[in-house]
## 1
Amino acid sequence: MQIIEIYKSLQGESSYAGLPCVFVRLAGCNLRCAWCDSEYTFKGGSRMTQEQVEAEVDRLLPNKGLVEVTGGEPMLQEREVVPLMQSLVDAGYSVLLETSGERPLTNVPEQVVKIVDVKCPDSGEGGTFLPGNLSALTERDELKFVIASRRDYEFARDFVLEVASGQRASSIFSPAFRKDATGSRGVEHCLVDPRDLAEWILADNLNVRLGFQIHKFIWEPSLKGV
Ligand code: SF4
């Protein structure tokens, strides 16, 4: 499979946020989100076999733990990434898959936690989520909405209340971070004020989690491999 990088950091954008995690970042993406901070994944990378990826994960996490398969869009390499995820599960790792949900998720091993980043309108990729993927989600999975405006918030709210009502997956609303942010590590780089987002969630009585890309607040925002 085509790999951009494999590295250890803290998981930053889900209910697993804050836990040590090895990231397996695959190359290639078929979307072009306006606030994407991973454009370096669109091209390049190196061919690695499943055994080579597993050996690197084992080197970085000798006592097992959390592994996130991400990108780019990892499900573009479904034929290779599905057996990799199953093998990591079988070896005793807890495996997360970060995906836009634009590709079918029915073949993802059931033990893998799917973190599905449903694109909101301001990303420029709204409407790309494949509705049929809702039936592939379980109570372990998470729907994530990266929000850059009130319009995005209303899209996410209506999605949770109408499209995904009755869904067992939990939901996270996360302020989008400016992709050109550098220097300071504060909320001034968020495209929507977290306080506004918190107050909208509370005013609408939504049962969703407010999330942050915590790595942006720990390390220099433009740093890769964290
Ligand atoms: S899906 Fe992810 S990697 Fe692809 S353009 Fe959007 S934010 Fe970037």
## 2
Amino acid sequence: MDEIIVFDTTLRDGEQSPGASMNTAEKLEVARALDLLGVDVIEAGFPISSPDDWNAVNEIAKMLTRPVICGLARCTKKDIEAAASALEPAKKPRIHTFLATSEIHRKYKLEKAKDEIVKLSIEGVTFAKTFTDDVQFSPEDAARTELDFLCEVVQATIAAGATTINIPDTVGYSVPSRFRVVIETLFEKVPNIDKAVLAIHCHNDLGLAVANSLAAVEAGARQIECTINGLGERAGNCSLEEVVMALRVRGDHFAKRVNVDTTRLVPISRLVERVTGIHVQRNKAIVGANAFAHEAGIHQHGMLKDASTYEIMKPEDVGLTASRLVLGKHSGRHAFKQRLEELGYTLDDDQFERAFGYFKVLADRKKEIFDEDLEALVEDEIKDVPETWELLNFHTSSGSGTIPTATVRMMNADGEAVTDAACGDGPVDAIYNTIERVTGISARLTDYEIRAITAGKDAQGEVSLALDIDGRIVRGRGVSTDILEASAKAFVNAINIHLFQARPTQ
Ligand SMILES: [Zn+2]
């Protein structure tokens, strides 16, 4: 069976989605999980865009040896050099360079004629080739490009040495039958098309990214670009979990092989949710909370007789298992470390000690500790942002007929404890007003979400929020069995991230 190359761009296109930015430690965690998932190519970032992006690509290139590690670059020397230097330690580096080809982009964005576009594309690919053999070229907005011109650009860039040609539906405008024609035409009209792998990159503005990608596969495309949870600019990209499961479940129809360990789909989806603070909707295919839930009586009756009456795949196939009791109050250092390793986490000594300390506190508060709890507390420890402000303790009083007030004690970077008090519309608001007074930072809460990590009344609550501080959005996250404490921790986390990002750099 032909193999479909799974190209994941969660760390590049996904990270570009509003509010989804990740720090380097978080990107490394996601990259490790993508490696375990078995994707073939990881697009790790856009190195020229920021020093942090360059650094993340570089660290991932050092860390992972199995997958191809890809860096994005516009068709300019500076971009390509930045990508090449970031990818220098990679065992299998790929430079992905792109240039817009559609009439709208040529006219309004680039102000360049067709022949200039072809020339620049060739130059970009040729220059990238001096750093690595593995060069991918994307004619941006290909889906809206005149077909004859698209064929011309593709032929020229393959001749220049591009080994993968990616056809993006940049604005999510295509429909499956039309996209299929685009791919078929390339196979018909481009004489050297067999010298490169044909890829697609579909956006989901009309909810058709997965359908368009599958139509392209039927027409002969061999690489699918996708993201975990369908993250990406605007409505996002083709969702990895959906497209992979479509190829797997309907193997009878597509007859293509994908090298992905599907039992890791739900865990990585949860990881990306936690790291980005962007949660998938309950009815999301494959990974949504309701994807395998059966409510209707008539369905339940059928399910009890035979699961296949209403289920086309098993929850275990995608890594959905019942919450598992793993550790308790009396579990020691060794058991804790071992379970973390089984979950795919490697912490340094300092992170481990902090995580273990919190585990002990948690075990006192909560009888049973599940994998989800461990994941949440480890994610808490790998935030990799210095704790400029640390929450020491807080007290609130609220109730009907009283004015909610909070007292908060925090420690600053010099190790001094600062205490203050304030009132608010409710206990959370009172805590936030007090933290603002203590830190001297005023923030506007633009998003606040709370959810239980596991079932049960003693479950940990996870608060993820977004603050607008001086016009910049920062996300924070906090976990605790006490939702007020989780709320406070999330707020302090966002403030620390803000201070870290706003620090003077030399
Ligand atoms: Zn994109």
